[in-house]
Structures are given as structure tokens and as C-alpha cells.
Amino acid sequence: MHTWARYLIFFQYIGTKYNGAVKVPAHQLGKRGIQDHLEEAIMRLKPVNPVSLSVSSRTDTGVHALSNSAHFDLQRKNNKPPFTEQTLVEALNFHLRSEQIRITHAHRVPNTFHARFSAESRTYIYRIALGIPHYSLLPLTENNLCWSLWNTELDTGAMREAAALLVGTHDFSSFRAVSSEMAFKNPVKTLDVANIQPGSSFTQEHFHRHIPIWELTFRSRSFLYRQVRRMTGALVAVGQGRMSVSQLKDLLEAQDSLAYPQGLVAPARGLFLTKVDYKDTDLQPFQTPEAQHPSTGDSED
């Protein structure tokens, strides 16, 4: 007899080290996806069932996450009880110790729960460093973790005015990149938040000079392919004076991905998925028998 449980895990990663959040086809050479490494770590816990992870947010290569999420089912043999949430976190992190991926917490969830489709909202933050004429002038702790611009300042007032135009329910076709999924995705999305606020460098108190950091925050239930990076690129162009607020409004109203100016998309390295929200009722403690701790080694149960 086997017992099984569905778990929701939250995890972090440095996106430049991996080929996106989801699984990379076996025939494709090079870097693997975050999902590949997570499933490999889960398999090291010796489940009975084949492991298949459902990732909530399928970030691109180079995009980071402070809190992405995924669910999976895990069956144990010999009628052993499900793992506790804390020991599951510790065991998975043991097997991921050589990767730049960390499980932050886990929840036992009902078998009707889905990490992607049960999500209430997703929050992204885009980090911009100003006054950097060459990327090599960034501190090591910021390398590949922000978009460095030569500008010493941006017109943040105009950027906020433009960002306000994006908030609400719109056809965001102009802000999605061309992809094979275009025909199956509704371009109408509701953007709940588009904020532009000062941020801080990871080494602000210790670096030899001050680096102005700005953070653009976007929250929605879901986003189109590369929507956040395209919105960021357009807002930065407004801040640099290369695009007017009215031109951004015209771009939004064009509802045409080909209307987006070439060379304007913000690079992946400055983008962080910071939060995936669920209903509190989905994350209530799950009533289970007392769970057993998994082994962190590779031995059979």
C-alpha cells in the first residue's frame, strides 16, 4: 500500500545559471531548467510515483525568482506517512546544495490544488541601476541582478504618469512578444499595480560610491509572454525622454505586438519574480498523521 500527498513548494533561484523555470527537452544541449533540477531532487527522496512538477510561473532564461512556486504529488512505499513540510524543505535543499536554487517553504495542499491555476496574483520587480557607463563598474553583488544604465537620472514623474495608463484591464497585445502560444492566449489582462519607487543596492553601505537604484513593481493574476520586460523597456524610454507619455498610450491602444519599437525590451537580468499569492484557505495546515523524516542520503528506505 502506498500513501501520497500533494505539496506546494516555494523556491528561489538565480536565473542566469539556468535555461528558464520549466523543463528543457532532453534533446536540447546546454543549461537545464529549474524544473529539471527540482524533479531530480524530489526523485532522490525515493518516491514510488513518477515525479511531475507543475510550476506556477514559467520565467525566461536570465529572469530570477525570490519566490516562485510549484506543486507535485509524492507517494511513499510501505504505507509510510507523508513527509513533514519542514523536513521536506531541508531534504530537497540538501539535494540542491550544489545549485543556486533554494526551497524556502512548503505546504501540504488538497489534491484539487494547482500551483499555476490556483494563483491569485503574481508580483514582479524590475531593478535598474543608474550612472553606470559600463557594466564592469557594478559591484559583484549586482552583476546580472539589475539593468545598468548610463543615465544618472530618469524622469520618474513621466514614468509614473505612463505607468498609470497601464493599470487596469487592457488588451496588452502591444506588450507581448511573438511566441507559438499567441493564438491560445487571451491578450486581455488586468494589471493591478505598476509602481516606480527608489530601491537600494545590495552593498549600499559598503561599496565605494552610491549607486541609485530604481524598482518597477508589477502585479497581476497573470502576464503575457515577456509583458513585464516590454512594459519596463517602454517606461524606461519615457524616463529617458526617448518616448512620450502619449506615445506609450498610443502603443497600448495599437494592440499589436509588431507596433512595439525594436531594441526597447528590458534585458532579463534585472527582473525578479518576488511573490505568488494564493488564498489563505489553500495554505491552511493540512491534517495528516505524524509525518516521517526523509533521509538526506541516497540509500533506499
Task: Report what the structure shows.
The longest helix has 14 residues, at 227-240. The protein is α+β, with helices and mostly antiparallel strands and 301 residues long. Strands 1, 2, 3, 4, 5, 6, 7, 8, 9 and 10 form a 10-stranded mixed beta sheet that branches. It has 5 helices and 10 strands, in the order βαββαβββαβββααβ.
Which outline best applies? globular
| Assembly state of the chains shown | single chain
What does the main sheet amount to? 10 strands, mixed
Contiguous low-pLDDT stretches (5 residues minimum) are 288-301
Strand content: 25-35%
Overall mean pLDDT stands at: 90
What is the straight-line distance between the termini?
15 Å
The succession of helices and strands, N to C, reads EHEEHEEEHEEEHHE
Structural class: alpha+beta
Q: State the total count of DSSP E strands.
A: 10
Number of helix segments? Answer: 5
The rounded Rg comes to 21 Å
Helix content: 10-25%
